[in-house]
Design brief:
Layout lengths: L17 E7 L13 E9 L2 E7 L4 E6 L5 H9 L6 E4 L5 H9 L4 E7 L1 H10 L8 E2 H7 L6 H9 L12 E2 L12 H18 L1
Parallel strand pairs: 1-6, 2-5, 7-8
Antiparallel strand pairs: 2-3, 3-4
């Protein structure tokens, strides 16, 4: 295993400024344990390009990046996560508030919707420290499914809240980037950004 993989998730803790609320799809996959009929969305600029933010009455339920596929495609993709909801373009955060959310210096409520395995994977991702990475295989082993690496990778790709749930910190065992739902350039930029910040703090 490459020396870049030094993170022990059993000894890591997620940022206390992030609180997770989780809800599950039913077996039919078209219903959830709660409807959340109203979702607001907003486009803002971040260090990783044009960013789509989505929020419901519980909290932040979507964070996507638009530069590779475009705003319309990103919005359509995210709407599939909440097929029964109604959507309204609105102001969710000011520039200052949004920056504090991305910097994780402001408390934020996350509202996750998915299967139990998906939410288990997403919560495990929250334990990867900034500037650190792990392999897909290590993550699969951590959640007790060492033979289900592909399934775990698929769950990672369904992560609805990019950056804050840091799926970009998962690489292939040989150190290659692997995949990223919003484009490999975005993943590369995120890792480079975190590496620079981490080196500054050292």
């Amino acid at each position: 295993m490459s020396k870049i993989f030094t993170t022990d998730l059993n000894k890591s803790k997620q940022n206390q400024n992030i609180k997770v609320h989780e809800f599950y799809y039913s077996k039919s996959c078209d219903k959830t344990t709660m409807g959340f009929p109203k979702i607001s969305y907003q486009f803002k600029t971040s260090s990783f390009g044009e960013t789509l933010i989505m929020s419901n009455e519980i909290g932040l339920c979507g964070l996507a990046f638009c530069d590779q596929f475009g705003k319309d495609t990103a919005l359509a993709d995210m709407k599939l996560r909440w097929p029964k909801a109604s959507y309204k373009k609105d102001t969710i955060y000011s520039d200052k508030e949004f920056k504090s959310i991305l910097d994780q210096t402001k408390r934020v409520e996350l509202c996750l919707i998915g299967s139990k395995l998906q939410t288990q994977v997403w919560k495990a991702l929250l334990k990867i420290p900034p500037g650190k990475v792990i392999s897909y295989a290590t993550l699969a082993k951590h959640i007790g499914k060492p033979k289900a690496v592909r399934t775990i990778a698929t769950a990672i790709g369904k992560n609805p809240i990019g950056w804050l749930i840091p799926c970009h910190r998962v690489l292939r065992a040989n150190g290659e980037l692997g995949g990223y739902h919003w484009g490999l350039n975005v993943k590369k930029n995120m890792l480079t950004y975190e590496s620079k910040i981490n080196n500054t703090l050292c």
